[in-house]
């Protein structure tokens, strides 16, 4: 069987948008599922709008998401190929040089609009004689190459593996440009040539490209190329059901990364925007996604990018993340929050792992770490809240703190269970209630009257620091 070859073909005119990331992901999952190849093709032929900075950041974001590619191309490296094929079409009289200037085109466009006609190219340069062309050249006019559509525009059928056949009765595009005057190709032309030359078997992209696909089919026919299969994914919408835009928050992968989301969170959500598993599973690992991904389960209706769900997913993945990885992921945010200055090593790293393990259930995003109050217990200076002071002023509190200190001071370390035992012993020795022991203990050690489990806190802080705090509170 032939290897499946799919591609992701972003234009580097902005940061990677979540819509683009979804297209990349679906293609990647498809490739993985079929033991195929994913081609990353940077479509940077619009020289004014493309930039290397965006191309690099798209690659970086894809890598961050775990979407790796097997082959890489950049269209700006291939200009000579597009030009060669454009000349071939001219030679075969399927395309022609057009010398109309921008101003002339604009004037005719305006006239057509004024007369209530669809403003399409009127074919003026279709049948220029060699002398006329020569004259234009001598006048110093630039030329573009236009694709010649047949007089009677044919009906175009896009065979879509997701949506079924889609018919275009007539494409109101007129003879469209395939090669611009600066020698760069138009998107549709370069796309067809590359999908053919790169032996793409299945072209899957968002449905806003449907009309382009119809135009591309005409080019496949003119060039006498076999067509790949096509599939169009439904659009992503914002919470207000309008096109997903900045207005409703972050839309670029970069922003989500910066805002403390884990890559698997985004992958998990994007995978389910237009696809669902048979048994309504919600949290997937990557191997599960690959295993279960199938075009049969694609949902062909617009999908809402749901930020609340994203937060819930992120919490789930933070809770599941391997601890060592979580430490690395958390460090930049802890530094931003001024809890930590340098990457910790050995014992400090171990301590950080324990702290993160303790607080991770409450984290929705890693940015929450920047203002996670519980972190102050372990890093930074402690301040006693007024409630904590109140607990510490109970009559029984000073003796309780002293007794706790006596039991802790001889120790090098303490386990959570040992903390429970000590609390129990102090309660019995001093004949007080449980709350009269653990409340002042918590108040002295954490500065608050509620928070993470106190036996875990003590075990992480260790007896020495705990004793210091019992001292200063007592
Ligand atoms: N460069 C096009 C875009 O970013 C991609 C089109 C395609 O996938 O064919 O919209």
Keywords:
474 residues, mainly alpha, Rossmann fold, Helicase, Ruva Protein, domain 3, three-stranded parallel β-sheet, three-stranded antiparallel β-sheet, 19 helices, 10% strand, binds glutamic acid
Q: How large is the radius of gyration?
A: 32 Å
Termini gap? 78 Å
Determine and state the CATH class of the largest domain: Alpha Beta
- Name given to the CATH architecture of the largest domain: 3-Layer(aba) Sandwich
Name the CATH superfamily classification of the largest domain: HUPs
| 3D shape | elongated
Structure in words:
47% of the residues lie in helices and 10% in strands. It has 474 residues and is mainly α. The chain folds into four domains: 145 residues, HUPs (Rossmann fold), CATH 3.40.50; 155 residues, Rossmann fold (3-Layer(aba) Sandwich); 57 residues, Helicase, Ruva Protein, domain 3, CATH 1.10.8; 88 residues, Orthogonal Bundle (Arc Repressor Mutant, subunit A). A three-stranded parallel beta sheet has the order 1-2-3. Helix 9 crosses helix 11, helix 16 packs across helix 17 and helix 17 packs across helix 19. The relative contact order is 0.09. The structure holds glutamic acid (GLU). The site of glutamic acid has 7 residues, from loops.
Offer a concise description of the structure.
This protein is mainly alpha-helical and 474 residues long.
């Amino acid at each position: 069987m032939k290897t499946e070859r799919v591609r992701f073909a972003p234009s580097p005119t902005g940061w990677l948008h979540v819509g683009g990331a979804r297209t990349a992901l679906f293609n990647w999952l498809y490739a993985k599922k079929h033991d195929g190849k994913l081609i990353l093709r940077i479509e940077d032929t619009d020289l004014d709008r493309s930039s290397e900075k965006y191309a690099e950041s798209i690659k970086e974001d894809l890598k961050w998401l775990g979407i790796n590619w097997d082959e890489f191309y950049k269209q700006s490296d291939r200009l000579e190929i597009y030009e060669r094929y454009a000349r071939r079409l001219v030679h075969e009289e399927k395309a022609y040089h057009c010398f109309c200037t921008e101003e002339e085109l604009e004037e005719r466009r305006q006239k057509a609009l004024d007369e209530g006609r669809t403003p399409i190219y009127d074919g003026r340069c279709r049948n220029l004689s060699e002398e006329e062309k020569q004259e234009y050249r001598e006048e110093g006019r630039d030329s573009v190459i236009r694709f010649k559509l047949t007089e009677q525009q044919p009906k175009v059928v896009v065979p879509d593996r997701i949506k079924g056949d889609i018919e275009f009765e007539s494409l109101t595009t007129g003879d469209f440009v395939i090669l611009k005057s600066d020698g760069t190709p138009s998107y549709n032309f370069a796309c067809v040539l590359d999908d053919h030359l790169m032996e793409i078997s299945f072209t899957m992209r968002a449905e806003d490209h449907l009309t382009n696909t119809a135009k591309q089919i005409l080019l496949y026919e003119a060039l006498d190329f076999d067509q790949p299969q096509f599939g169009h994914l439904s659009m992503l919408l914002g919470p207000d059901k309008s096109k997903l835009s900045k207005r409703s928050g972050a839309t670029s992968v970069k922003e989500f990364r910066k805002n403390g989301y884990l890559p698997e969170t985004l992958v998990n959500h994007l995978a389910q925007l237009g696809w669902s598993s048979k048994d309504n599973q919600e949290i997937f690992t990557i191997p599960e996604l690959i295993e279960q991904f199938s075009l049969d389960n694609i949902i062909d209706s617009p999908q809402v990018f749901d930020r609340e769900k994203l937060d819930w997913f992120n919490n789930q993945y933070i809770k599941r993340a391997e601890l060592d990885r979580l430490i690395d992921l958390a460090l930049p945010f802890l530094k931003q929050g001024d809890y930590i200055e340098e990457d910790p090593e050995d014992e400090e790293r171990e301590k950080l792992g324990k702290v993160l393990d303790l607080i991770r259930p409450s984290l929705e995003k890693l940015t929450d770490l920047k203002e996670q109050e519980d972190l102050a217990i372990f890093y930074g200076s402690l301040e006693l809240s007024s409630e904590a002071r109140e607990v510490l002023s109970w009559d029984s509190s000073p003796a309780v703190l002293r007794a706790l200190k006596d039991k802790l001071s001889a120790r090098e370390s303490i386990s959570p269970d040992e903390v429970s035992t000590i609390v129990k012993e102090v309660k019995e020795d001093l004949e007080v209630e449980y709350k009269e022991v653990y409340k002042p203990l918590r108040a002295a050690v954490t500065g608050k009257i509620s928070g993470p489990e106190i036996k875990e806190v003590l075990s992480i802080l260790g007896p020495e620091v705990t004793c210091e705090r019992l001292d200063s509170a007592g």
